[in-house]
Amino acid sequence: MGVKPADALSDQLRRIDGKGYKAYKDIAGAYDFRQFTLYIDHVQGDPFAAPSRVRVRVSRPESGFAKETTANQSRTIALGDFLTRRFFRQAKRLSKGSRGTGKGGAIAIDRPGQQILRRSSFFINDEFVEARFFMGLPAFGRKVAGRDAQTMYFSELPDIVNSTMFFSAIDEQSLYRHLETAEDADAARAQLPEKGLIAFIADNSLLPRRSGIDDRPLGDPAAVRFQTDDTYRVTLDLPNNGKTPGMGIPRGVSLIVGGGYHGKSTLLHALERGIYNHVPKDGRQFAVTVKNAAKIRACDGRSIAKADITPFISNLPLHKDTAEFSTQNASGSTSQAANIIEAVEAGAEALLLDEDTSATNFMIRDRRMQQLVAKQSEPITPFIDKVRQLYTEKGVSTVVVMGGSGDYFNVADHVIRMTAYLPEDATEAARAIASRDPAGRQEEGGKNFGRIADRIPEAQSISVYRRNRKMKIAGRGLREILLGETDVDLSDLEQIVDPSQTRALAHAVYHATRFMNDGLPLQKVAEKVIADVEKNGLDVLVPHITGDLAEMRGMDIAGAINRIRTLQVRQA
Ligand code: ADP
Ligand code: MG
Predict the structure, then answer these.
(1) Spacing, Cα 401 to ligand 2 middle (Å)
(2) pTM above 0.90, yes or no
(3) What are the structural domain ranges in the chain?
(4) Which of 97, 240, 398, 549 has CB atoms 3.0–4.6 Å from 504's, for a disulfide?
Protein backbone atom coordinates (compact mmCIF):
# COMPACT_ATOMS: atom_id res chain seq x y z
CA MET A 1 0.00 0.00 0.00
CA GLY A 2 1.43 3.33 -1.02
CA VAL A 3 2.10 5.90 1.66
CA LYS A 4 0.44 9.22 0.89
CA PRO A 5 1.48 12.57 2.34
CA ALA A 6 -0.43 13.60 5.48
CA ASP A 7 -1.84 16.52 3.52
CA ALA A 8 -3.81 14.05 1.44
CA LEU A 9 -5.68 12.97 4.58
CA SER A 10 -6.31 16.57 5.50
CA ASP A 11 -7.68 17.31 2.03
CA GLN A 12 -9.85 14.20 2.16
CA LEU A 13 -11.35 15.18 5.51
CA ARG A 14 -12.08 18.67 4.24
CA ARG A 15 -13.72 17.21 1.15
CA ILE A 16 -15.98 14.78 3.00
CA ASP A 17 -16.96 17.15 5.83
CA GLY A 18 -20.72 17.10 6.21
CA LYS A 19 -21.22 14.17 3.83
CA GLY A 20 -22.79 10.83 4.76
CA TYR A 21 -20.77 8.76 7.25
CA LYS A 22 -19.88 6.19 4.58
CA ALA A 23 -17.65 8.81 2.95
CA TYR A 24 -15.12 8.09 5.74
CA LYS A 25 -14.34 4.83 3.93
CA ASP A 26 -12.12 6.85 1.58
CA ILE A 27 -9.62 7.73 4.31
CA ALA A 28 -8.37 4.15 4.72
CA GLY A 29 -4.69 3.98 3.83
CA ALA A 30 -1.23 4.98 4.97
CA TYR A 31 -0.06 8.55 5.59
CA ASP A 32 3.35 10.05 6.15
CA PHE A 33 3.36 12.35 9.19
CA ARG A 34 7.17 12.83 9.11
CA GLN A 35 7.83 11.60 12.69
CA PHE A 36 5.50 8.68 12.15
CA THR A 37 3.45 6.78 9.63
CA LEU A 38 -0.28 6.53 10.23
CA TYR A 39 -2.14 3.46 9.02
CA ILE A 40 -5.90 3.63 8.94
CA ASP A 41 -6.57 -0.08 8.52
CA HIS A 42 -10.30 -0.33 8.90
CA VAL A 43 -12.92 2.38 8.86
CA GLN A 44 -16.11 1.82 10.82
CA GLY A 45 -19.36 1.79 8.84
CA ASP A 46 -21.36 4.02 11.17
CA PRO A 47 -20.81 6.07 14.32
CA PHE A 48 -22.21 3.34 16.56
CA ALA A 49 -20.13 0.48 15.13
CA ALA A 50 -16.89 -0.79 16.68
CA PRO A 51 -14.36 2.04 16.33
CA SER A 52 -11.91 2.19 13.46
CA ARG A 53 -8.62 0.28 13.67
CA VAL A 54 -5.56 2.45 13.42
CA ARG A 55 -1.79 2.01 13.74
CA VAL A 56 1.07 4.44 14.19
CA ARG A 57 4.60 3.41 13.31
CA VAL A 58 7.80 5.19 14.33
CA SER A 59 11.16 4.04 13.03
CA ARG A 60 13.12 2.36 15.80
CA PRO A 61 16.23 4.53 15.43
CA GLU A 62 14.09 7.68 15.60
CA SER A 63 12.08 6.38 18.55
CA GLY A 64 15.33 6.30 20.52
CA PHE A 65 14.60 3.08 22.42
CA ALA A 66 18.05 1.58 22.87
CA LYS A 67 18.81 -2.05 22.09
CA GLU A 68 18.91 -2.90 25.79
CA THR A 69 15.20 -2.06 26.15
CA THR A 70 14.51 -5.13 24.02
CA ALA A 71 17.53 -7.22 25.01
CA ASN A 72 15.35 -10.26 25.68
CA GLN A 73 11.74 -11.34 25.49
CA SER A 74 10.96 -10.31 29.08
CA ARG A 75 12.02 -6.74 28.31
CA THR A 76 10.38 -6.56 24.90
CA ILE A 77 7.04 -7.63 26.33
CA ALA A 78 7.43 -5.25 29.27
CA LEU A 79 8.33 -2.37 26.95
CA GLY A 80 5.17 -2.97 24.93
CA ASP A 81 3.20 -3.08 28.16
CA PHE A 82 4.77 0.12 29.46
CA LEU A 83 4.09 1.98 26.23
CA THR A 84 0.51 0.73 26.14
CA ARG A 85 -0.08 2.15 29.63
CA ARG A 86 1.60 5.40 28.68
CA PHE A 87 -0.41 5.70 25.45
CA PHE A 88 -3.62 5.01 27.39
CA ARG A 89 -2.88 7.77 29.90
CA GLN A 90 -1.76 10.26 27.29
CA ALA A 91 -4.84 9.57 25.14
CA LYS A 92 -6.99 10.32 28.16
CA ARG A 93 -5.08 13.49 28.91
CA LEU A 94 -4.51 14.88 25.43
CA SER A 95 -7.64 13.91 23.57
CA LYS A 96 -11.04 15.49 24.10
CA GLY A 97 -12.55 12.00 24.01
CA SER A 98 -16.08 11.27 22.85
CA ARG A 99 -17.70 13.98 20.79
CA GLY A 100 -20.73 14.05 18.51
CA THR A 101 -22.71 10.94 17.79
CA GLY A 102 -22.15 7.41 19.11
CA LYS A 103 -18.59 6.36 19.84
CA GLY A 104 -17.18 9.22 17.80
CA GLY A 105 -14.16 11.15 18.98
CA ALA A 106 -12.51 8.61 21.25
CA ILE A 107 -8.89 7.54 20.88
CA ALA A 108 -8.44 4.30 22.80
CA ILE A 109 -5.79 1.68 23.29
CA ASP A 110 -6.03 -1.54 25.27
CA ARG A 111 -5.84 -1.06 29.03
CA PRO A 112 -3.58 -3.42 30.98
CA GLY A 113 -4.35 -4.35 34.58
CA GLN A 114 -1.81 -5.41 37.21
CA GLN A 115 -0.20 -8.01 34.93
CA ILE A 116 2.46 -7.46 32.32
CA LEU A 117 1.26 -9.53 29.40
CA ARG A 118 2.35 -9.95 25.83
CA ARG A 119 -0.15 -7.81 23.93
CA SER A 120 -0.92 -6.91 20.35
CA SER A 121 -1.32 -3.23 21.30
CA PHE A 122 2.37 -2.58 20.62
CA PHE A 123 4.67 -4.25 18.17
CA ILE A 124 8.37 -3.57 18.57
CA ASN A 125 11.29 -4.87 16.54
CA ASP A 126 14.66 -3.52 15.36
CA GLU A 127 13.06 -1.53 12.57
CA PHE A 128 10.08 0.12 14.17
CA VAL A 129 7.84 0.70 17.16
CA GLU A 130 4.17 0.40 16.33
CA ALA A 131 1.07 1.25 18.37
CA ARG A 132 -2.25 -0.39 17.49
CA PHE A 133 -5.36 1.32 18.76
CA PHE A 134 -8.87 2.47 17.97
CA MET A 135 -10.37 5.78 16.89
CA GLY A 136 -14.05 6.55 16.87
CA LEU A 137 -14.52 8.69 13.77
CA PRO A 138 -16.66 11.67 14.77
CA ALA A 139 -20.07 12.50 13.34
CA PHE A 140 -22.94 14.93 13.71
CA GLY A 141 -25.98 12.73 13.39
CA ARG A 142 -24.79 10.47 10.60
CA LYS A 143 -22.73 13.09 8.84
CA VAL A 144 -18.94 13.24 8.78
CA ALA A 145 -17.60 15.73 11.34
CA GLY A 146 -14.55 16.52 9.23
CA ARG A 147 -13.17 19.30 11.42
CA ASP A 148 -13.31 17.19 14.54
CA ALA A 149 -11.55 14.42 12.65
CA GLN A 150 -8.91 16.95 11.59
CA THR A 151 -8.33 17.85 15.22
CA MET A 152 -8.04 14.19 16.18
CA TYR A 153 -5.54 13.29 13.45
CA PHE A 154 -3.54 16.48 13.24
CA SER A 155 -3.46 17.72 16.81
CA GLU A 156 -4.43 15.12 19.41
CA LEU A 157 -2.85 12.05 17.84
CA PRO A 158 0.53 13.69 17.15
CA ASP A 159 0.59 14.94 20.75
CA ILE A 160 -0.12 11.43 22.07
CA VAL A 161 2.46 9.86 19.78
CA ASN A 162 5.13 12.44 20.54
CA SER A 163 4.73 11.97 24.27
CA THR A 164 4.59 8.17 24.12
CA MET A 165 6.58 6.67 21.29
CA PHE A 166 9.88 8.51 21.75
CA PHE A 167 12.33 7.60 24.48
CA SER A 168 13.14 11.27 25.08
CA ALA A 169 9.55 11.87 26.23
CA ILE A 170 9.55 9.06 28.78
CA ASP A 171 10.67 8.84 32.38
CA GLU A 172 13.73 6.67 32.02
CA GLN A 173 13.73 5.44 35.60
CA SER A 174 10.18 4.15 35.63
CA LEU A 175 10.65 2.56 32.21
CA TYR A 176 13.71 0.65 33.33
CA ARG A 177 12.07 -0.33 36.58
CA HIS A 178 9.23 -1.83 34.57
CA LEU A 179 11.57 -3.77 32.28
CA GLU A 180 13.79 -4.95 35.11
CA THR A 181 10.87 -6.07 37.26
CA ALA A 182 9.54 -8.25 34.46
CA GLU A 183 13.02 -9.56 33.76
CA ASP A 184 13.49 -10.45 37.43
CA ALA A 185 10.14 -12.21 37.64
CA ASP A 186 10.96 -14.34 34.61
CA ALA A 187 14.39 -15.08 36.07
CA ALA A 188 12.82 -16.08 39.39
CA ARG A 189 10.39 -18.38 37.60
CA ALA A 190 13.25 -19.92 35.64
CA GLN A 191 15.09 -20.71 38.90
CA LEU A 192 12.20 -22.66 40.43
CA PRO A 193 12.92 -26.08 38.85
CA GLU A 194 16.58 -26.23 39.90
CA LYS A 195 15.57 -25.35 43.45
CA GLY A 196 12.86 -27.99 43.52
CA LEU A 197 10.14 -25.37 43.94
CA ILE A 198 6.78 -24.76 42.36
CA ALA A 199 6.47 -21.23 43.70
CA PHE A 200 8.38 -18.44 45.39
CA ILE A 201 7.07 -15.46 47.33
CA ALA A 202 9.58 -12.78 48.22
CA ASP A 203 9.66 -11.31 51.69
CA ASN A 204 7.79 -8.00 51.92
CA SER A 205 5.41 -8.98 49.15
CA LEU A 206 1.92 -7.56 49.48
CA LEU A 207 -0.59 -10.27 48.69
CA PRO A 208 -4.04 -8.94 49.61
CA ARG A 209 -5.99 -6.92 47.05
CA ARG A 210 -8.16 -3.86 47.58
CA SER A 211 -11.34 -5.77 46.96
CA GLY A 212 -12.80 -8.76 45.19
CA ILE A 213 -13.22 -6.61 42.09
CA ASP A 214 -10.12 -4.44 42.43
CA ASP A 215 -6.83 -6.18 41.73
CA ARG A 216 -4.65 -3.34 43.02
CA PRO A 217 -2.78 -3.96 46.28
CA LEU A 218 -4.41 -3.31 49.63
CA GLY A 219 -2.94 -0.10 51.09
CA ASP A 220 0.11 -0.49 53.27
CA PRO A 221 -0.92 0.28 56.86
CA ALA A 222 -3.90 -2.08 56.54
CA ALA A 223 -1.87 -4.87 54.98
CA VAL A 224 0.58 -7.27 56.60
CA ARG A 225 3.62 -7.76 54.41
CA PHE A 226 4.61 -11.33 53.69
CA GLN A 227 7.52 -12.82 55.67
CA THR A 228 8.69 -16.37 55.23
CA ASP A 229 9.19 -18.84 58.01
CA ASP A 230 12.81 -20.06 58.31
CA THR A 231 11.92 -23.61 57.22
CA TYR A 232 10.95 -22.39 53.77
CA ARG A 233 13.56 -19.67 53.40
CA VAL A 234 15.11 -19.54 49.95
CA THR A 235 17.20 -16.78 48.46
CA LEU A 236 16.99 -16.24 44.73
CA ASP A 237 19.60 -14.27 42.87
CA LEU A 238 17.81 -11.98 40.43
CA PRO A 239 19.52 -10.05 37.64
CA ASN A 240 18.38 -6.62 38.84
CA ASN A 241 17.04 -6.97 42.36
CA GLY A 242 19.99 -9.15 43.38
CA LYS A 243 19.69 -11.46 46.39
CA THR A 244 15.99 -11.82 47.09
CA PRO A 245 14.93 -13.84 50.13
CA GLY A 246 11.49 -15.33 50.49
CA MET A 247 9.43 -18.44 50.83
CA GLY A 248 9.92 -21.36 48.50
CA ILE A 249 7.02 -23.74 48.13
CA PRO A 250 8.58 -27.13 47.38
CA ARG A 251 7.33 -29.73 44.97
CA GLY A 252 5.11 -32.38 46.49
CA VAL A 253 1.89 -32.07 48.43
CA SER A 254 1.57 -28.88 50.45
CA LEU A 255 -1.23 -28.03 52.78
CA ILE A 256 -2.16 -24.49 53.73
CA VAL A 257 -4.01 -24.55 57.04
CA GLY A 258 -5.06 -21.90 59.52
CA GLY A 259 -8.08 -20.25 61.02
CA GLY A 260 -10.79 -18.62 58.96
CA TYR A 261 -9.86 -15.12 57.78
CA HIS A 262 -6.15 -15.68 58.42
CA GLY A 263 -5.08 -15.29 54.79
CA LYS A 264 -5.12 -18.83 53.33
CA SER A 265 -7.08 -18.05 50.19
CA THR A 266 -5.14 -14.84 49.68
CA LEU A 267 -1.91 -16.84 49.64
CA LEU A 268 -3.38 -19.32 47.18
CA HIS A 269 -4.56 -16.47 44.94
CA ALA A 270 -1.03 -15.14 44.86
CA LEU A 271 0.15 -18.57 43.73
CA GLU A 272 -2.53 -18.67 41.00
CA ARG A 273 -1.49 -15.27 39.71
CA GLY A 274 2.22 -16.03 40.05
CA ILE A 275 2.11 -17.46 36.52
CA TYR A 276 2.10 -13.82 35.35
CA ASN A 277 4.55 -10.96 35.72
CA HIS A 278 3.25 -7.97 37.61
CA VAL A 279 3.88 -4.24 37.50
CA PRO A 280 6.55 -2.88 39.88
CA LYS A 281 4.18 -1.55 42.57
CA ASP A 282 1.80 -4.50 42.51
CA GLY A 283 3.17 -6.14 45.64
CA ARG A 284 3.35 -9.52 43.90
CA GLN A 285 6.09 -8.56 41.45
CA PHE A 286 8.43 -11.12 43.02
CA ALA A 287 5.80 -13.74 43.74
CA VAL A 288 6.10 -16.34 41.01
CA THR A 289 4.69 -19.77 40.26
CA VAL A 290 5.60 -22.33 37.60
CA LYS A 291 3.86 -21.39 34.36
CA ASN A 292 1.84 -24.60 34.18
CA ALA A 293 0.21 -24.36 37.59
CA ALA A 294 -3.53 -24.94 37.28
CA LYS A 295 -6.17 -23.56 39.62
CA ILE A 296 -8.76 -26.25 40.05
CA ARG A 297 -12.27 -25.72 41.30
CA ALA A 298 -15.66 -27.32 41.11
CA CYS A 299 -18.00 -25.93 38.49
CA ASP A 300 -21.25 -27.81 38.29
CA GLY A 301 -23.17 -27.52 35.06
CA ARG A 302 -20.15 -27.61 32.74
CA SER A 303 -20.02 -30.05 29.85
CA ILE A 304 -17.45 -32.84 29.64
CA ALA A 305 -16.39 -34.73 26.51
CA LYS A 306 -15.16 -38.31 26.94
CA ALA A 307 -12.82 -37.65 29.84
CA ASP A 308 -11.47 -40.67 31.66
CA ILE A 309 -12.37 -39.75 35.20
CA THR A 310 -12.11 -43.30 36.60
CA PRO A 311 -9.24 -42.33 38.92
CA PHE A 312 -11.84 -40.33 40.87
CA ILE A 313 -15.23 -41.61 39.80
CA SER A 314 -16.44 -45.08 38.92
CA ASN A 315 -19.54 -47.22 39.34
CA LEU A 316 -22.00 -44.44 38.69
CA PRO A 317 -25.67 -45.35 39.00
CA LEU A 318 -27.21 -46.79 35.80
CA HIS A 319 -23.71 -47.99 34.79
CA LYS A 320 -22.80 -44.68 33.25
CA ASP A 321 -19.34 -44.98 31.73
CA THR A 322 -16.62 -43.01 33.51
CA ALA A 323 -13.68 -44.14 31.33
CA GLU A 324 -15.22 -42.06 28.56
CA PHE A 325 -17.37 -39.76 30.60
CA SER A 326 -19.51 -37.26 28.74
CA THR A 327 -22.16 -34.98 30.15
CA GLN A 328 -23.83 -31.66 29.45
CA ASN A 329 -24.38 -31.08 33.13
CA ALA A 330 -21.59 -32.16 35.45
CA SER A 331 -22.10 -32.31 39.20
CA GLY A 332 -19.76 -30.49 41.54
CA SER A 333 -17.58 -33.52 42.14
CA THR A 334 -17.52 -34.80 38.54
CA SER A 335 -16.66 -31.31 37.28
CA GLN A 336 -13.77 -31.08 39.71
CA ALA A 337 -12.57 -34.56 38.75
CA ALA A 338 -12.69 -33.64 35.05
CA ASN A 339 -10.94 -30.33 35.73
CA ILE A 340 -8.04 -32.19 37.32
CA ILE A 341 -7.81 -34.91 34.68
CA GLU A 342 -7.96 -32.33 31.90
CA ALA A 343 -5.37 -30.09 33.54
CA VAL A 344 -2.94 -32.99 33.90
CA GLU A 345 -3.67 -34.05 30.33
CA ALA A 346 -2.86 -30.47 29.26
CA GLY A 347 0.50 -30.59 31.02
CA ALA A 348 -0.10 -29.14 34.49
CA GLU A 349 2.90 -29.45 36.82
CA ALA A 350 1.03 -28.21 39.85
CA LEU A 351 -2.57 -28.06 40.99
CA LEU A 352 -3.91 -25.31 43.24
CA LEU A 353 -7.07 -26.10 45.19
CA ASP A 354 -9.03 -24.16 47.76
CA GLU A 355 -11.58 -25.78 50.02
CA ASP A 356 -13.70 -22.65 49.49
CA THR A 357 -14.34 -23.58 45.85
CA SER A 358 -14.09 -27.37 46.02
CA ALA A 359 -16.80 -30.00 46.27
CA THR A 360 -16.59 -31.36 49.83
CA ASN A 361 -17.40 -34.92 48.81
CA PHE A 362 -14.63 -34.73 46.23
CA MET A 363 -12.06 -33.64 48.80
CA ILE A 364 -12.76 -35.88 51.80
CA ARG A 365 -14.63 -38.93 53.05
CA ASP A 366 -13.93 -39.57 56.65
CA ARG A 367 -13.96 -42.73 58.75
CA ARG A 368 -17.51 -42.36 59.92
CA MET A 369 -18.88 -41.78 56.43
CA GLN A 370 -16.93 -44.76 55.16
CA GLN A 371 -18.80 -46.88 57.69
CA LEU A 372 -22.24 -45.55 56.89
CA VAL A 373 -21.97 -45.51 53.08
CA ALA A 374 -20.13 -48.56 51.76
CA LYS A 375 -17.56 -48.09 49.01
CA GLN A 376 -19.72 -50.13 46.60
CA SER A 377 -22.33 -47.42 46.69
CA GLU A 378 -19.95 -44.47 46.63
CA PRO A 379 -18.64 -43.71 43.12
CA ILE A 380 -16.21 -41.04 44.31
CA THR A 381 -12.65 -41.74 45.36
CA PRO A 382 -11.81 -38.57 47.23
CA PHE A 383 -8.85 -36.41 46.27
CA ILE A 384 -7.15 -37.23 49.58
CA ASP A 385 -6.54 -40.78 48.29
CA LYS A 386 -5.16 -39.63 44.94
CA VAL A 387 -3.09 -36.59 45.74
CA ARG A 388 0.07 -38.54 46.63
CA GLN A 389 -0.17 -40.83 43.61
CA LEU A 390 -0.57 -37.78 41.45
CA TYR A 391 2.82 -36.62 42.70
CA THR A 392 4.73 -39.89 42.84
CA GLU A 393 3.40 -41.32 39.57
CA LYS A 394 2.64 -38.29 37.44
CA GLY A 395 5.01 -35.74 38.96
CA VAL A 396 2.17 -33.31 39.61
CA SER A 397 2.45 -31.28 42.80
CA THR A 398 -0.54 -29.95 44.71
CA VAL A 399 -1.10 -27.02 47.01
CA VAL A 400 -4.38 -27.31 48.84
CA VAL A 401 -5.99 -24.87 51.23
CA MET A 402 -7.63 -27.02 53.86
CA GLY A 403 -8.77 -25.55 57.12
CA GLY A 404 -11.54 -28.10 57.54
CA SER A 405 -10.03 -31.59 57.62
CA GLY A 406 -7.00 -32.88 59.49
CA ASP A 407 -7.23 -36.15 57.53
CA TYR A 408 -5.00 -34.42 54.99
CA PHE A 409 -2.10 -34.43 57.50
CA ASN A 410 -1.45 -38.03 56.41
CA VAL A 411 -0.83 -37.15 52.79
CA ALA A 412 1.04 -33.85 53.07
CA ASP A 413 4.77 -33.35 52.59
CA HIS A 414 4.52 -29.83 53.95
CA VAL A 415 2.03 -28.10 56.17
CA ILE A 416 2.03 -24.31 56.18
CA ARG A 417 -0.03 -22.66 58.89
CA MET A 418 -1.25 -19.12 58.32
CA THR A 419 -1.65 -17.06 61.46
CA ALA A 420 -2.69 -13.44 61.10
CA TYR A 421 -1.48 -13.49 57.45
CA LEU A 422 1.96 -14.88 58.22
CA PRO A 423 3.11 -18.40 57.36
CA GLU A 424 4.83 -20.80 59.70
CA ASP A 425 5.83 -24.38 59.27
CA ALA A 426 3.50 -26.83 60.99
CA THR A 427 4.63 -30.05 59.32
CA GLU A 428 6.09 -31.66 62.45
CA ALA A 429 3.12 -30.68 64.58
CA ALA A 430 0.72 -32.13 62.01
CA ARG A 431 2.74 -35.38 61.82
CA ALA A 432 2.73 -35.71 65.60
CA ILE A 433 -1.03 -35.29 65.69
CA ALA A 434 -1.49 -37.78 62.85
CA SER A 435 0.46 -40.48 64.70
CA ARG A 436 -1.10 -39.73 68.08
CA ASP A 437 -4.63 -39.51 66.74
CA PRO A 438 -5.02 -41.68 63.60
CA ALA A 439 -7.66 -40.72 61.05
CA GLY A 440 -8.69 -44.35 60.97
CA ARG A 441 -10.01 -44.19 57.46
CA GLN A 442 -9.59 -46.78 54.72
CA GLU A 443 -7.57 -45.72 51.71
CA GLU A 444 -9.70 -45.95 48.61
CA GLY A 445 -9.15 -46.13 44.88
CA GLY A 446 -6.30 -48.63 44.72
CA LYS A 447 -2.53 -48.48 44.73
CA ASN A 448 -2.14 -46.52 41.48
CA PHE A 449 -3.50 -43.27 40.19
CA GLY A 450 -4.74 -44.74 36.93
CA ARG A 451 -4.70 -43.58 33.37
CA ILE A 452 -4.63 -40.07 31.99
CA ALA A 453 -5.92 -40.55 28.47
CA ASP A 454 -4.92 -38.24 25.64
CA ARG A 455 -7.97 -37.10 23.75
CA ILE A 456 -8.06 -36.19 20.08
CA PRO A 457 -10.45 -33.34 19.29
CA GLU A 458 -12.47 -33.20 16.07
CA ALA A 459 -12.37 -29.88 14.23
CA GLN A 460 -15.87 -30.32 12.74
CA SER A 461 -17.36 -30.23 16.23
CA ILE A 462 -16.23 -26.61 16.68
CA SER A 463 -18.16 -24.25 14.47
CA VAL A 464 -17.60 -20.51 14.30
CA TYR A 465 -20.45 -19.90 11.87
CA ARG A 466 -23.82 -18.52 12.82
CA ARG A 467 -27.03 -19.63 11.22
CA ASN A 468 -26.78 -16.70 8.82
CA ARG A 469 -23.40 -18.18 7.77
CA LYS A 470 -21.50 -15.24 9.18
CA MET A 471 -18.44 -15.95 11.26
CA LYS A 472 -18.58 -15.09 14.94
CA ILE A 473 -15.45 -15.31 17.07
CA ALA A 474 -15.44 -13.04 20.08
CA GLY A 475 -14.79 -12.67 23.75
CA ARG A 476 -17.55 -11.36 25.98
CA GLY A 477 -16.20 -9.85 29.16
CA LEU A 478 -13.71 -11.91 31.08
CA ARG A 479 -15.21 -15.36 31.23
CA GLU A 480 -17.17 -16.09 28.09
CA ILE A 481 -16.32 -16.65 24.47
CA LEU A 482 -18.69 -16.77 21.52
CA LEU A 483 -18.04 -19.18 18.67
CA GLY A 484 -20.75 -19.17 16.02
CA GLU A 485 -23.97 -20.11 17.81
CA THR A 486 -22.13 -21.51 20.83
CA ASP A 487 -21.40 -19.60 24.02
CA VAL A 488 -18.54 -21.08 25.98
CA ASP A 489 -18.57 -20.47 29.72
CA LEU A 490 -15.05 -20.05 31.11
CA SER A 491 -16.10 -19.09 34.62
CA ASP A 492 -13.93 -21.78 36.24
CA LEU A 493 -10.80 -20.83 34.28
CA GLU A 494 -9.88 -18.43 37.05
CA GLN A 495 -6.38 -17.71 35.84
CA ILE A 496 -7.70 -15.72 32.89
CA VAL A 497 -7.36 -12.17 34.18
CA ASP A 498 -7.89 -9.82 31.25
CA PRO A 499 -10.71 -9.48 28.69
CA SER A 500 -8.07 -9.18 25.96
CA GLN A 501 -6.91 -12.68 26.89
CA THR A 502 -10.48 -13.89 26.56
CA ARG A 503 -10.75 -12.30 23.12
CA ALA A 504 -7.46 -13.87 22.07
CA LEU A 505 -8.59 -17.17 23.50
CA ALA A 506 -11.67 -17.17 21.24
CA HIS A 507 -9.42 -16.72 18.21
CA ALA A 508 -6.89 -19.22 19.56
CA VAL A 509 -9.60 -21.88 19.76
CA TYR A 510 -10.49 -21.27 16.12
CA HIS A 511 -6.80 -21.22 15.18
CA ALA A 512 -6.44 -24.56 16.98
CA THR A 513 -8.98 -26.21 14.69
CA ARG A 514 -6.46 -26.05 11.83
CA PHE A 515 -4.15 -28.37 13.77
CA MET A 516 -6.88 -30.88 14.56
CA ASN A 517 -7.75 -33.99 12.59
CA ASP A 518 -4.20 -35.23 12.09
CA GLY A 519 -4.84 -37.42 15.10
CA LEU A 520 -3.13 -34.81 17.27
CA PRO A 521 -4.03 -34.89 20.98
CA LEU A 522 -5.53 -31.75 22.52
CA GLN A 523 -2.37 -30.82 24.42
CA LYS A 524 -0.28 -30.93 21.23
CA VAL A 525 -2.89 -28.91 19.36
CA ALA A 526 -2.72 -26.22 22.03
CA GLU A 527 1.09 -26.31 21.99
CA LYS A 528 1.06 -25.70 18.26
CA VAL A 529 -1.04 -22.58 18.71
CA ILE A 530 1.34 -21.31 21.39
CA ALA A 531 4.38 -22.07 19.23
CA ASP A 532 2.76 -20.09 16.43
CA VAL A 533 2.15 -17.14 18.78
CA GLU A 534 5.73 -17.33 20.09
CA LYS A 535 7.09 -17.25 16.57
CA ASN A 536 4.73 -14.85 14.82
CA GLY A 537 3.10 -12.91 17.64
CA LEU A 538 -0.56 -12.65 18.56
CA ASP A 539 -1.31 -11.25 15.08
CA VAL A 540 -1.20 -14.81 13.78
CA LEU A 541 -4.51 -15.52 15.54
CA VAL A 542 -6.59 -12.96 13.68
CA PRO A 543 -7.32 -12.14 10.03
CA HIS A 544 -6.69 -8.40 10.55
CA ILE A 545 -4.26 -6.72 12.91
CA THR A 546 -6.05 -5.59 16.05
CA GLY A 547 -4.59 -4.10 19.21
CA ASP A 548 -6.85 -5.77 21.75
CA LEU A 549 -5.35 -9.22 22.23
CA ALA A 550 -3.28 -10.54 25.14
CA GLU A 551 -1.45 -13.82 25.60
CA MET A 552 -2.77 -16.91 27.31
CA ARG A 553 -1.32 -20.35 28.02
CA GLY A 554 -1.71 -23.52 26.02
CA MET A 555 -3.45 -24.95 29.09
CA ASP A 556 -6.08 -22.27 28.88
CA ILE A 557 -6.65 -22.95 25.18
CA ALA A 558 -7.16 -26.62 26.04
CA GLY A 559 -9.39 -25.52 28.92
CA ALA A 560 -11.57 -23.42 26.62
CA ILE A 561 -11.85 -26.21 24.04
CA ASN A 562 -12.82 -28.64 26.80
CA ARG A 563 -15.71 -26.37 27.73
CA ILE A 564 -17.27 -26.18 24.26
CA ARG A 565 -20.61 -27.94 24.55
CA THR A 566 -20.51 -29.31 21.01
CA LEU A 567 -16.98 -30.74 21.38
CA GLN A 568 -16.42 -34.24 20.03
CA VAL A 569 -13.24 -36.15 20.86
CA ARG A 570 -11.92 -39.66 20.74
CA GLN A 571 -9.45 -41.11 23.18
CA ALA A 572 -6.01 -42.06 21.85
P1 ADP B 1 -9.03 -17.36 54.71
O2 ADP B 1 -9.00 -18.00 53.38
O3 ADP B 1 -7.95 -17.87 55.60
O4 ADP B 1 -10.37 -17.44 55.36
P5 ADP B 1 -8.61 -14.88 53.28
O6 ADP B 1 -7.35 -15.14 52.54
O7 ADP B 1 -9.87 -14.93 52.50
O8 ADP B 1 -8.72 -15.80 54.55
O9 ADP B 1 -8.43 -13.46 53.94
C10 ADP B 1 -9.42 -12.88 54.75
C11 ADP B 1 -9.38 -11.36 54.62
O12 ADP B 1 -8.14 -10.85 55.06
C13 ADP B 1 -9.56 -10.88 53.19
O14 ADP B 1 -10.41 -9.77 53.18
C15 ADP B 1 -8.17 -10.50 52.77
O16 ADP B 1 -8.17 -9.48 51.79
C17 ADP B 1 -7.55 -10.05 54.05
N18 ADP B 1 -6.09 -10.27 54.04
C19 ADP B 1 -5.46 -11.35 53.52
N20 ADP B 1 -4.13 -11.24 53.66
C21 ADP B 1 -3.90 -10.06 54.30
C22 ADP B 1 -2.72 -9.36 54.72
N23 ADP B 1 -1.51 -9.87 54.49
N24 ADP B 1 -2.89 -8.17 55.32
C25 ADP B 1 -4.12 -7.67 55.53
N26 ADP B 1 -5.26 -8.26 55.15
C27 ADP B 1 -5.17 -9.45 54.54
MG1 MG C 1 -10.54 -19.01 52.32
Answers:
(1) 7
(2) yes
(3) 3-170, 293-436, 455-571
(4) 549
